[in-house]
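Input record, target 12 of the design panel.
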């Protein structure tokens, strides 16, 4: 099925690989099943936007598509909403890497990754994106309204809290501060483009010391530890 606003094209060659213990931030919970039903139903974004005159017009993917590249210490990062026709082979190959599959639990046929992407879009306020660093696809992001997510049942959510999930691929992009630079850049971008959002949040596994260190270096603070379905997480918060 064609993604909204997406023109099919051949994806760049190559496969993203890497250690999920380093860059799978945070683990999406509950884990997705083969049908892609990863979370309970949530209020559609359009319904929420209709009650909020400050909400961006149109779909969240349209909003993010208008975001400019952000300059980071690692280079220029552009968040591009995922286009299945173009990006699914790359994403599916990534999800089938054993190191990635151990955390994302989406190994299998491309249809399983497609179902996960469809579930993200069906939420109405979660946008799966590719991160292009100087034009090179090297990361996968999910940008979502944390205050409308099941996560909000586990912490004192504030209106318009925005959550981020990040997966970085190749070994050349790990262990030299790239993740910290991208997290800082995306948090800056979210706060700049969403005027009603006062906080960017994340919930990495408490055992994931490298990710906790990267979040702290990117300006996040560890506000609490949460018992979430499937993991104990550190609630990381970046404020204006």
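The sequence produced for target 12 reads:
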């Amino acid at each position: 099925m064609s993604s909204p606003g997406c023109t099919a094209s051949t994806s760049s060659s190559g496969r993203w690989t890497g250690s999920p213990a380093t860059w799978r931030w945070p683990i999406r919970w509950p884990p997705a099943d083969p049908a892609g039903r990863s979370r309970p139903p949530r209020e559609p974004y359009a319904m929420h936007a209709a009650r909020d005159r400050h909400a961006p017009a149109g779909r969240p993917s349209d909003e993010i598509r208008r975001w400019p590249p952000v300059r980071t210490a690692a280079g220029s990062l552009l968040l591009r909403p995922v286009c299945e026709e173009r990006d699914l082979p790359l994403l599916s190959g990534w999800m089938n890497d054993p190191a990635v599959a151990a955390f994302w639990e989406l190994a299998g046929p491309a249809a399983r990754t497609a179902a996960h992407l469809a579930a993200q879009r069906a939420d109405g306020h979660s946008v799966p994106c590719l991160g292009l660093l100087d034009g090179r696809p090297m990361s996968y992001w999910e940008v979502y309204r944390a205050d409308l997510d099941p996560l909000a049942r586990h912490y004192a959510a504030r209106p318009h809290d925005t959550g981020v999930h990040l997966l970085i691929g190749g070994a050349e992009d790990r262990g030299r501060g790239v993740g910290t630079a991208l997290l800082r850049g995306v948090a800056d971008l979210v706060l700049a483009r969403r005027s009603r959002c006062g906080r960017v949040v994340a919930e990495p596994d408490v055992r994931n010391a490298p990710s906790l260190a990267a979040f702290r270096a990117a300006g996040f603070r560890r506000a609490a530890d949460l018992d979430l379905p499937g993991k104990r997480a550190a609630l990381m918060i970046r404020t204006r």
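The domain at 20-239 is CATH 3.40.630.30 (Aminopeptidase).
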